[in-house]
């Protein structure tokens, strides 16, 4: 079964470091899935291409064709890679506006790899205090590792302690594990009747077999 990955980049310039990071993330995820023998495909969407459509959708409640096709692909994808520039300590307004134009249930249970870019590493925590709560609110399932890239991560003086590629590879492994099924099995509901007794006994059996007091 082919795994579909939607990739959304919210960079405003062309080219942009946001798109560069998105490309590196999807390449790393592809490499991990290939190593696991999992078929995959991906589509990369740049929000700058549908910025006017997003505004029109917010104003009218109807999504123009290009935005509707993008949102349909995202809703039907097995995973999402979402990358935004950080402005004023948080995700961009365009990025948030797109999520506001997306169906509220589109990301239910979808594993998401979060990425962000900014000019300085001072914004590196934005993934955890801004992006992660947002996607959790949408009932998506962000992987543990988010990937932040500052301007210094692209140059010759890249961080020697946790270089960008190392962070990318770790996040890609986590998303690939989810897509391959090795880490994405649904957790058992502890309140389901079958969970009260080992061996899958039903709640009715539990009541029937309760010890009686003499």
Description:
It holds the Pfam family FMN_red. This is NADPH-dependent FMN reductase. One of its GO terms (molecular function) is oxidoreductase activity. It is a single chain. This protein is α/β, with parallel strands linked by helices and 214 residues long. It contains seven helices and seven strands, in the order βαβααββαβαββαα. It has a single domain (3-187), classed as Flavodoxin domain (Rossmann fold), CATH 3.40.50.360. 40% of the residues lie in helices and 18% in strands. Strands 1, 2, 3, 4, 5, 6 and 7 form a seven-stranded mixed sheet that branches. Helix 1 links the parallel strand 1 (3-9) and strand 2 (40-46).
């Amino acid at each position: 079964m082919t795994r579909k990955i939607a990739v959304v980049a919210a960079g405003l310039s062309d080219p942009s470091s946001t798109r560069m990071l998105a490309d590196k993330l999807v390449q790393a995820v592809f490499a991990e899935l290939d190593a696991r023998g999992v078929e995959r495909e991906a589509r990369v969407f740049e929000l700058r291409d549908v910025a006017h459509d997003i505004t029109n959708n917010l104003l009218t409640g109807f999504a123009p064709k290009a935005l509707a096709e993008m949102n349909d692909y995202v809703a039907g994808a097995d995973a999402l890679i979402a990358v935004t520039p950080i402005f004023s300590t948080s995700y961009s307004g365009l990025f948030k506006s797109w999520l506001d134009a997306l169906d509220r249930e589109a990301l239910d249970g979808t594993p998401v790899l979060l990425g962000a870019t900014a000019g300085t590493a001072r914004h590196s925590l934005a993934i955890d205090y801004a992006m992660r709560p947002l996607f959790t609110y949408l009932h998506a399932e962000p992987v543990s590792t988010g990937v932040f890239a500052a301007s210094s991560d692209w140059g010759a003086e890249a961080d020697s302690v946790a270089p960008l590629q190392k962070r990318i590879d770790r996040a890609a492994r986590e998303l690939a594990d989810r897509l391959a099924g090795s880490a994405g099995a649904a957790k058992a509901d502890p309140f389901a009747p079958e969970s009260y007794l080992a061996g899958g006994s039903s709640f009715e059996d539990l009541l029937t077999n309760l010890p009686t007091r003499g």
